[in-house]
Specification:
Layout (H helix, E strand, L loop, with lengths): L18 H12 L4 H8 L3 H10 L1 E5 L5 E5 L1 H13 L12 H12 L4 H10 L11 H9 L1
Antiparallel strand pairs: 1-2
Helix pairs in contact: 1-4, 2-3, 5-6
Amino acid sequence: MALEHKSTTSQSKFKHLSSFERGKISALLDEGLTPSAIARALGRHRSTITREIIRWTTTQLGAELKPFECYYPETGQAVYEKNRARCKKMSRFHRVTGFPNYAEQRMREDKWSLDAAVGFARRHQLFDKEAMVCTKTLFFLHFS
């Protein structure tokens, strides 16, 4: 008898706007379409398009010093890419100091390998789990 999957939560269908979609928004705005019409053309929710337009529209001064508003898709894409580059999980190494110092001391004084220092500390529970890093991380930090 197969198990039936009964989930009470729905799968999220969100996806980020692409550079192409931002360019399309700009072109459709230049044609005079409303955010609702642009959303229908791109198959996106109206609020997604509205937020994007509001976020990346700025007031500029024209040739005769008359203010006008302009949507800048390039700026939106550049900020998106910068933010995505920073969204990786941060290493725990910057938060742990005791264990790397211990491992370095064992390697220098007792001529232990990285694996021996990690294994001994784990086996004898010298540090709690959050205060330790794995051998690979220790190797990377020691030899880079």
